[in-house]
Amino acid sequence: MADQPTRETTKTGTVVPVAFDADENVTSIAFEAEGLSFRILQKGRGIDLMELLNEEVSITGVFGKDKEGALAVLVKSYKMAGAAGMEDEDLGLDLGPGE
User: Fold this and answer.
1) How far are the Cα atoms of 15, 83, 98 from residue 72, in angstroms, in the given order?
2) How many domains does the chain have?
3) pTM to 2 decimal places
């Protein structure tokens, strides 16, 4: 993110759709937490969150502003809220080899 320290933070909130294409498919998502809306960057783990629309999740990542000055988050990891102690496989997530 634009000229900001890269300290990771964990926040709990809801993944919501914010943009759609002509066929009403979701093209962009945000994370609403603490009364703020952060655009989820579609890199790394952020891509996975398209499957968790309207779900409450805990996200660990870099929260800040993007190059345009809008609030955004680069997701490093996430878990379903209330899923403490569960492994990613238990959530039905395919995180790829070695993760």
Assistant:
1) 13, 24, 27
2) 1
3) 0.76
Q: What is the CATH number of the domain that holds 52?
A: 2.40.50.140
pLDDT tens readout for residues 24-49: 999 999 999 999 999 999 998 999 99
Query: Which uninterrupted H or E stretch holds 65?
Result: strand 56-65
- The answer to whether 30 and 75 are in contact (CB under 8 A) is no
Beta strand pairing call for 71-80 and 26-33: unpaired
Q: Read off the tokens for 25.
A: 């498919």
Residue 69 burial (CB count, 10 A): 8
In the numeric block, which tokens belong to residue 20?
Answer: 């759609």
**Residue 38 in domain:** yes
Domain membership flag for residue 99: no
